[in-house]
Design brief:
Blueprint lengths: L1 H19 L7 H4 L17 E8 L13 H14 L12 E11 L7 E13 L2 E13 L7 H24 L5
Parallel strand pairs: 1-2
Antiparallel strand pairs: 2-3, 3-4
Helix pairs in contact: 3-4
Amino acid sequence: MKFLKLLCAAVGAAVVLQLTGCAASATSQAMTVKPGSVATVNPKLKGAVKLGEVTGGKATNPMWTSQVDGASFKKALEDSLAISGYLATDPAQAKYAVSANLAELDQPLMGFTLDVKSSITYQVAGPGVTRDYPVKATGSATVSDAFMAVERLRLSNERSILENIKEFLNQLANFSD
């Protein structure tokens, strides 16, 4: 009888662990814009941008919730600038610098559809000009995307940052000194 209770408890714990899983950090590849996803490239900034300081984000605790770490966010932004044609081949020759601060990642605690809202302030600085671009975006994932909540949250994080970077790149189309 005691053995049966222990066995049931062990099986129950295994099922709970299987359903909850371990949290994984967002990946830079999933947060990077795809070629052709930005409508217009500003000719003034084409090949004239270097990546400046990128701050914000936090590491994922595998036993808690998925996060967006600073290094992955920085890589996604840098790769997105390159794919869009903004990144200078030689940073020393760049006329403008883009900086970014991932200020907030608003995540739900639970739900079937997880909506993550990201708030990032980008800054473009160059000779005699500094422009701030505060951008908010939402990324969602449903049970049809991933059954496990920790996986849905990671997908929502990635989609939110991707949409945020995309919106920033679309706003760059209207940049002028």
